[in-house]
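User: I'm new to structure prediction. If I give you an amino acid sequence, what do you actually give back? Let's try with this one:
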Amino acid sequence: MGTIGIDWNFEGYQKEAHFFLCGAFESFYFISDFLKSLTKFPFMLKDNVIIDSVFGSPTCIWNGGRTISDVYYNKPQLQTIHDTYADLGIKVRFIFTNPLLNEHDLHDRYCNLLMSVFQDLSPEVVVNSLLLEDYIRDNYPLVTFVSSTTKRLRTKEKQLSHYVCRPKPANG
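Assistant: Good question. You get back a string of structure tokens that encode the predicted 3D arrangement of the chain. For your 172 residues, that looks like this:
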């Protein structure tokens, strides 16, 4: 009988294993130091292991309250975080899954500041609100969308059409 389960040592694993680090903002200094260490000492990970992106979001109304800090970053701080991840070649994935958003919340200055600072990195955004998805799609065209499992898509057609949403084409 063959081996059952996952080979957590990645021995003999032929394809790349992509990892996503949580705490993109609240653990920023740890993550940036860790990733910088990997560039100096690449043998710390097996050859087929790739740190693909960091995910999370700072405290803001779009994220649905899933933060462990109450830190608000100013624009220069956000730019430093942006520049660090850009220099390291790491994608940023925002988690914006507040199910109670309304039209007024879409115009939150802080959330829009986050998007404007990170837009040129073509961030990924996990959303569960079609209202927020449409707003971001219209205002930040470089964003790639990832549908949240909390979206509660009840039909097979909706599930297939919302599994991973790509950026809106430039021509509309």
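You can read the tokens as a compact description of the fold. Here is one thing that stands out. Residues 59 and 65 are 7 Å apart (CA to CA).
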